[in-house]
Structures are given as C-alpha cells and as structure tokens.
Amino acid sequence: MSEEAQAPESTGQAESGESSALAFNASSMPEGLRDEPSLQTFDSVDKLAKSYVNAVKKIGGNPDNMINIPQEGESWDHVYNQLGRPDRSDGYDLGEDDEGVLDDFKQFSHDIGLSQHQAENILGAYNDIQEMEAENFQQSIKDLEVHSTIELQKEWGKNFEGNMDYAKRAYSQFATPGLSEVLDETGLGNHPEMIRAFSKIGQLLGEESLAVGTGLGQSQMSPQAAQQEIQALYSDKDFSKAYRDNRDPGHQTAMRKMDRLFKQAYPNQRRVR
Description:
Blueprint: H1 45-58, H2 77-82, H3 101-111, H4 116-156, H5 160-174, H6 177-186, H7 192-212, H8 223-235, H9 237-244, H10 251-265
C-alpha cells in the first residue's frame, strides 16, 4: 500500500488545497444548527469565519445592531425604537401651534414609528404643499376677477361702470359680515354671476329708495349710475307723464326724484329746467 493510501482520514483538514484549514461539517453542530441551510455551504472553519466577519462588517461591527423583523402579530416597537423613534409622542421637536394640530401629528408619527428626522421632513413637505395651494388659490381669485371684468365689460358695454356701482351699493347695504367672509374666502365675490345678482339688487334698491324718498344708497351712486337711472326714467311712460304734467298727482314726487338724480349725475353742473 502506498503512503498516499495510508493517509489517515481523521486529520481534520479540508481538501481545499490549504493543509492548515480545518474542515467543517454542519452535521457535527448541535441540534438546531446542523440542519441550518446557510451552514451547508461551508466546508472549512476558515470560510465560516470569513463569512461571519463580513457579516459583522456589513451590520456595523456589532451583531446587536441587527434588526429582527417581527413576525405577524408581534410588536414593532423595538424596531421603531432602534430606528430613532422618540420614547413618547411629546419627544418630537416640531415647534408649537395654538390649535393642537401638531399634538395630533406627533401622536400619529409615534404610532407609525417615525423618527425625529422623518417627522420633520413630512411636516415640512406638508407645509410647503399648503403654502403652494394658498398661493395658487390667491392667483385663481385674481384670474377670476380679470375674467369677470372682461366678461361683464363685453356684456354691459357702456353701462359697465354704472352696473358695477349698483353691485357695490347692494353689497355694502346687504352683505353681512358672515357673507363677506364667505365670499372673500371662496373668491365667489368676484364671480360674474354674483356680481350680476348684486347689480340687479342695486338697481331695484336705487329705484325703490328714490321713489319713496328714503335716499337709501343714494350717496353712493356714481354719476354713471345716476345718468343710467335718468335715461331709464325718461323711457318710463308713467314716470315721464308724471314728471312733465304738473297736474299729475305724482308730479312733485317725480320732480324731486329727478332733481336728486341730476345732482348725482352732474355734480359740477347747475341744472336748468
């Protein structure tokens, strides 16, 4: 028998070409490890040791830094805490507010396991979006105002200034603080339909108040609106008759009404009858 054939089988050396390498066999490990699939690929202690060292380097040098993902139904608290979540919701430093909204956000952040850095970034992004939406809304209000002006100028023509004055008078007389707040917040005060509605109210208000002599809103009537009112009255057969016929029972009322209108329509001119 040759010397090679007489080499003992229990030298404990791997057949990898390195005579000093110690052989490794997972079957020699304690129960619970011998069937571990990840150990089946190693045939020497050297390879096993190198794999361990590389694994330690990848996780930061300390196996205790490894994060064990919880199984279904298990708590994630230890994972969140390792990733930097404060111990309590009031441990987040996100500033202060007067409405308690931040307290709710802090509690939400804690519940879903956010770190201080993550909570800051999410809150910052939310504030940026809110600011952008506010700027876009203000721009939409300005755009609506321009659109309304163009549309109503085209629709009303030379009566635009007068009709706008009617709308402003009606708004000042009837818009409550609550309505004004709603119109300002929503931008509906610039909507052409809203302006048309107030203009109609203003026209009715002007005609009725002048007829009964209350003077409601008269001090706010512009010369253009007063001139339109005069032309409308001249076209009214009943009013025109009462105005021109001194024997008509409504003659004096019509005269006073027309006098007031002329003063507002032509404030710098003296009327000659």
